[in-house]
Amino acid sequence: MNQAAAYTLRELRALDPAVRADVLCVLDRVARDLPVHWSRRAGIPQLMVFLDGDGGARTERTGLRELARHGYLDEFHRWVGGVPAEKAREHGCAALVYGDRIHARINQVGPFGSARFVPDTRAHVRVAHRDLRLGTSFSFPFDTEGRFFPRLVLHDWVSETLDRARRE
Fold it and tell me: Global pTM?
């Protein structure tokens, strides 16, 4: 088991069983919908995934303009935890999903310095639950398959770790 899988499993095991079930529902939806929303050119968009009340989860795109209502975009660390916490108060559990190159997109970093169009290599998921005082973070690395019609493929350990946490 790699370090990221061990960390993910340890964080999920530490949660109360009812909270873990909600978080796993949201993480399953992230793993299922991420390939649909990803594109080679734009990378991973900002997504909000939350419980829909019917025992499932729903995914919505959210833009930087909408997220900026919670603080200045260049102060990413201030609002990245507050946005899912606000949605979790309303829906029970929510997650903000973004790529590891979000800082380059926010700051419009061009060819000098850190290239703006370097592709994402990880999906970061900030999860908040109304019964948790602090949210938790997960990072899912991925690969792309296909040259002419590329698609995002999460590493195998992601689904295996979520299944293992569900069984325990």
Answer: 0.86
